[in-house]
Design brief:
- The structure is a single chain.
- The chain is of the alpha/beta class.
- The chain is 38% helix and 17% strand.
- It has a domain of 107 residues: CofD-like domain (Helicase, Ruva Protein, domain 3, Orthogonal Bundle).
- The chain contains 13 helices and 14 strands.
- The strands form five sheets. The protein has a four-stranded parallel beta sheet with strand order 9-10-13-14, sandwiched between helices. It has a three-stranded parallel beta sheet with strand order 1-2-5, with helices on both faces. The chain has a three-stranded antiparallel beta sheet with strand order 7-6-8.
- A hairpin with a 2-residue loop joins β11 and β12.
- The two termini are 19 Å apart.
- Bound molecules: guanosine-5'-diphosphate (GDP) and calcium ion (CA).
- Guanosine-5'-diphosphate binds next to α1 and α2.
């Protein structure tokens, strides 16, 4: 699975209910990664890890359940930056990852160690071990300078400002992470998660070699639409698509993905738009895709797996 954060994590949690977890591999976006207080933080990798471990916070959609915030209080005492919340237990992950990276370990190895620490049997692969940073250009200057890092747009500005462009700094010179191309080439089925097409799947496709590897598997690639009834369930996917000139509908998603996938799974509420998906040269499968409970996620995972060719 090509994965961003929450939507991908929920579908992965469904998949490991219907498949042996060791048969599931996620290639995860690292364009959202940031360095804060000198710590290397990988929000999408952590969301996927914590969710598969059953330890995610279902209310916030990020971080750990039952988290405490003592360290943030301490930071605040010194006038440190507190706009990006880091829970006490979560901080241990960032300390561990940063320490290992500083001692020369690669992000893929550290990701595997963190996953093992949470008892995961699935494989989590960062899309790259190189630094690729999603940069967002604001249409009106948000007071932070015209171009900001993704987390400044997403968290600090609450994605409540118009955007004129998005780019993935460092992508051209980046290499796919260890195991990424092999995982795509060797998969029975490649799944594009219901993640933000622009800022979660976009960075993955910008790493040279990944888009070509998926295109080569187009007949075995299925996407789940993150757009339902013309809107994102959460986050700025709909707004970003509109601002960057894409139609905010399952037809618009189909147009973005038609070169890499042969099938789009859309929600039942969009049944009347199946023709618009098929008009893009893709098969269209209709089912309930709002993973509001583990049962829906498991059913959706079954529907996804049914698209595997014999
Ligand atoms: P992140 O969690 O902020 O990294 O964001 P993602 O890349 O996971 O993307 C969020 C997108 O996933 C939004 O466009 C949501 O509409 C979509 N999404 C989240 N949960 C679900 C779900 O249960 N079903 C579907 N179809 N889409 C979802
Ligand atoms: Ca993300």
């Amino acid at each position: 699975m090509l994965a961003g954060g929450v939507g991908a994590a929920r579908l992965l949690a469904g998949l490991v209910q219907v498949l042996p977890p060791s048969e599931v591999t996620a290639v995860v976006n690292t364009g959202d990664d940031l360095i804060m207080h000198g710590l290397y933080i990988a929000p999408d990798l952590d969301t996927v890890t914590y969710t598969l471990a059953g330890a995610n916070n279902p209310e916030t959609g990020w971080g750990l359940v039952g988290e405490t915030w003592q360290a943030m209080g301490s930071l605040d005492r010194y006038g440190g930056d507190t706009w990006f919340n880091l829970g006490d237990v979560d901080l241990g992950t960032h300390l561990y990852r940063t320490g290992r990276l500083a001692s020369g370990a690669g992000l893929a190895a550290v990701t595997a160690e963190v996953a093992a620490g949470w008892g995961l049997e699935s494989t989590l692969l960062p899309m790259t071990e190189d630094r690729v940073v999603t940069k967002v250009t604001l249409a009106d200057d948000g007071g932070l300078g015209n171009e900001v890092d993704f987390q400044e747009y997403f968290v600090r500005l609450r994605h409540d400002v118009p955007v004129s462009s998005v780019r993935f700094d460092g992508a051209e010179a980046s290499l796919p992470g260890p195991g990424v191309l092999e995982a795509i080439a060797g998969a029975d089925l490649v799944v594009v998660a219901p993640s933000n097409p622009i800022v979660s799947i976009g960075p993955l496709l910008a790493v040279p070699g990944i888009a070509d590897a998926i295109r080569a598997r187009r007949d075995d690639t299925v996407a789940v639409s993150p757009i339902i009834a013309g809107a994102a369930l959460k986050g700025p996917a709909d707004r970003l698509m509109r601002e960057l000139g894409h139609e905010v509908s399952v037809g618009g998603v189909a147009r973005m993905y038609r070169d890499i996938t042969s099938c789009l799974i859309i929600d039942s509420v969009d049944t009347d738009l199946a023709g618009a998906v098929e008009a893009e040269g893709m098969a269209c499968v209709i089912t309930d895709t709002v993973m509001s409970s583990p049962e829906v996620a498991t059913d959706l995972a079954r529907t996804v797996l049914k698209q595997t060719r014999e």
